Amino acid sequence: MRERESYAVLVLGPSLGAGDLAALCARVDDAHRDVPAGRELVVLCDVAGLARPDLAGLDVLARLRLHTGRAGGTLRLWRAGPHLRLLLELTGLRSVLPSHPDGSADELGLPAPHEHGGQAEQREQPLGVEEVVDPGDPSG
Prior knowledge:
By secondary structure, the protein is an alpha/beta fold. Helices cover 28% and strands 14% of the residues.
């Protein structure tokens, strides 16, 4: 753990919906009150227990992240499964809801953030399409 960070862990699951937001925000507020002066609150959301992450759950996580930021802290996901990581990627929320960084994860046993593997796709030339150059065109 970093010396200037105080951690609070919220264990989420098996489901997450709009009805959970108020209680989660209250827990963030409680944790923020307990943070010593000069330290930053880092809220780790343990999302390993989410059985079927969906868009409603992502909405709650995004709103919780906003609330945490307004309280002066940061929110990071911890132990996100492949389905949640895919949803984050598809919705463009991966940078908004980051995973806990690998560098300070050792003491907490946190996994490294998900990285996509694979090779770049090679594009084929379209068939039957030829470029026609107009001799009068100044850019040609």
